[in-house]
Design a protein that fits this description.
Layout (H helix, E strand, L loop, with lengths): L4 H18 L14 H12 L5 H5 L2 E7 L2 H8 L13 E7 L12 E4 L5 H11 L2 E4 L11 E6 L2 E7 H6 L6 H6 E4 L1
Parallel strand pairs: 1-2, 1-3, 3-4, 4-5, 6-7
Antiparallel strand pairs: 5-6
Helix pairs in contact: 2-4
Length: 184
């Protein structure tokens, strides 16, 4: 591990843990099933920092792809130019629509799969290019998407499909397994 990498990873995990545990409980039955996109986008970007290969993939410029959700595109776009963490200077460089990617386009670092998308449409792409696929649609985890967020007991919960993660060639820091509910 490179000098300071353990410290940076620990700081990222503390920040993610704070988001997950200090978020106030949601009220009402509908809120128990949905998570706000503003919160979800921030959590997904913090989780991305737990990919051990991130630095070799991005040169600190994270590109976010979105398919099937105009609202998610807006939420991620609001973070364009912002730093994801303070210690490693990762920045949201661009937010693109999956549909606009051409054969010679640089693949995004992370791809949000929204409720108006078909996961089977994008999983061959994410697996071929090693792109982390994320969603807030829980049943998409059984259809090829790697990472999901849900509200459980009034708090955000990270759900990780390890099989899909392996197919996408992701290498998680061990702390990822501690903060996630793992499914296969």
């Amino acid at each position: 591990m490179r000098p300071g990498a353990r410290r940076r990873t620990t700081i990222a995990c503390i920040g993610l843990f704070a988001i997950l545990t200090l978020t106030p409980p949601s009220a009402g039955p509908a809120a128990d099933e949905l998570i706000s996109l503003d919160l979800a986008t921030r959590i997904f970007l913090k989780i991305l920092l737990l990919d051990r290969e991130l630095e070799s993939k991005t040169s600190n410029r994270v590109i976010v792809g979105v398919i099937g959700s105009d609202a998610a595109h807006e939420a991620f776009s609001a973070l364009r130019g912002q730093r994801i963490d303070k210690s490693r200077n990762f920045v949201v460089a661009d937010v693109i629509r999956y549909e606009t990617l051409g054969p010679d386009s640089r693949p995004p670092t992370l791809l949000y799969v929204g409720p108006h998308a078909t996961p089977e449409e994008v999983t061959p792409f994410t697996r071929r290019h090693g792109v982390l696929s994320v969603t807030t649609v829980h049943d998409y985890l059984d259809r090829g998407v790697t990472l999901g967020l849900a509200i459980e007991k009034g708090k955000p919960r990270v759900i990780l499909n390890l099989l899909n993660s392996d197919h996408e060639g992701l290498h998680w820091n061990s702390k990822m397994l501690k903060i996630s509910r793992v499914v296969r």
